[in-house]
Amino acid sequence: MTPQEINALLSAACFAGLAGLTLLGALLAALCRRLIYSVSGLALSFIGLAGLYLYLNAPFLALMQILVYVGAVCIVILFAIMLADTQDEQSGRDRRATLTAIASFLAASMLAVALFLMIRGTTWMAPAAPQNTGSLQDLGHALLGRFGFAFELISVVLLLAILGALVVARNGRDTPRD
Amino acid sequence: MYSLGDIVRLLLYLVGLIGFGAFNAAYLSLLERKQSAWMQLRRGPTEVGPWGLIQPVADGLKLLSKQILLPRDVNVPLFLLAPIMVVVPAIVSLVTIPFSETLVAHRYNLGLLMIFSFGAINIFALLIAGWASANKYASIGAVRVVAQNIAYEVPMLLVVIALVMVTSSFDLVEIVKQQGGGCWHWNLLKLGANPMMPASFLIFFICMLAETNRAPFDMVEAESELIAGAFTEYSGMGFGLFFIAEYVNILIGCSLATILFLGGWDCPFGLFPGPHWFLIKMYALCFTVVWVRWSFPRTQFYGLLNLSWKILIPLALVNLLLTAVMLKLVP
């Protein structure tokens, strides 16, 4: 084999491995009956996704994916599970569960068919040429320049979320004065 | 892109770094025992080898030969996975640490960020370890880990962001290069960029102690109240891996402090820069970490959280704003 062929093969193998990792994690998250396995699967899926970003030559995004999603989101979910009652996490199957399963299967397959038809019917555009080299500087300029307004709006949303959390937490703590 | 030689070089470096990490874990534990003995007017380990120098080897053999117990209620896959998840990111983080300008396994322009994002996996793994142990002490230890690490990650990242604004690079080699030529160029003393630099070094060091779960912030382990916290049910090398990871994390924390604030491999008076200076500074910081542990009693948990949320985070925010203002005013 020529070096180009080997490179292409290695590249395809990397992609398949990372996509497989992401899918495996997602399946674990969706199918496991124990919540803690689901969160671990979610973390695995996030790490696979970070690998895919790395594969697409976006290392900053990959590292942020791990830092934010594995380091914060998964930990907060896990924290909530540990603090919550762990007795009812293995709820048994009953008759309604089978009905729910059939209904969700039907809904999911309809969605899948619709998506398949849409994918077949669409004429795909050629992949856009990269706007910049995707370096940290470019990202910073894009975030604070071209997408500055969206960036600021997101920070307002986050601020509101913090205030909302404070209000909710404060409400329960107040003792009636009169 | 990468040639075969690069990959072989990286693998060899990785093997060397595993050795370096394990060696340091072993001998930092000896340092810990010797230093605590010295501070408490005891003698510490003396039996194995001269001055107890072979003691870590004996400890390692003991841990290797012990049986790994699996208690009845333990969640087996997660219980066995947790020590691996703790130790692998710690070792891999060492890859981007530059010991000198050329002695670095892989120079990476996002090295600083990579160390922080891999550090985040550590918390996840400790939480899994605590949960999988199915033990009250372990669960409490694990819950404390999260509260503590989230609390101290905020000021640490704020301080590092302020520093990155000054250096305008995530590349650890580049950050050290900007501090070359004597201790008055080090970030610690770069008062022209930000008059709060020494304070931000102090914040970084305190947060580093808390992030590596060291006394006075060792709420995870807290022997006197939680037996061994999240590690209670682990035996043999399962426990040994947590132990190694703790010391490797201290090593990484001290290396980062050296690189970010103390000029890395640069000599304080501009003579013969090289990896020896890096090691001297790093081990001086490691010594300080142990020194702090045996000098201060463990804080209460509320005190720990209050220190972060009420003192360190406001200070770090002021530091960030001040850095931004100084960058605008002093071009």
Structural description of this entry:
The complex is a heterodimer of chains A (178) and B (331). Chain A is mainly alpha-helical. Among the domains of chain A are: 1-84, Up-down Bundle (Four Helix Bundle (Hemerythrin (Met), subunit A)), CATH 1.20.120; 134-173. Helix content of chain A is 78%, strand content 0%. Chain A contains six helices and no strands. Chain A has helices at residues 3-31, 35-55, 59-83, 95-121, 136-146, 148-173. In chain B, 66% of the residues lie in helices and 0% in strands. With 331 residues, chain B is mainly alpha-helical. Chain B has helices spanning 4-39, 55-65, 76-93, 111-132, 136-167, 172-177, 197-211, 223-226, 236-261, 275-295, 301-329. The model of chain B has no long low-confidence stretch (mean pLDDT 84). Chain B is globular, with a radius of gyration of 20 Å. In chain B, helix 3 (76-93) runs parallel beside helix 9 (236-261). Chain B is built from eleven helices and no strands.
In short:
Chain A is mainly α and 178 residues long. Chain A contains 6 helices and no strands. In chain A, α2 runs antiparallel to α3.
- Number of structural domains of chain B: 1
What letter string, H or E per element, gives the SSE order of chain B? HHHHHHHHHHH
Relative strand content of chain A = under 5%
CATH hierarchy class name of the domain at 1-84 in chain A: Mainly Alpha
Number of helices of chain A: 6
Mean pLDDT of chain B: 84
CATH topology of the domain at 1-84 in chain A: Four Helix Bundle (Hemerythrin (Met), subunit A)
Largest β sheet strand count, sense and barrel closure of chain A: none
Uncertain spans of chain A, ≥5 residues at pLDDT below 50? none
Question: Which chains share the greatest interface?
Answer: A-B, 20 and 24 residues
Q: What's the oligomerization state?
A: heterodimer
Unreliable spans of chain B are none
Helix-and-strand structural type of chain A: mainly alpha
What proportion of the residues of chain B is helical, as a percent range?
Answer: 55-70%
Mean pLDDT figure of chain A: 82
Shape of chain B: globular
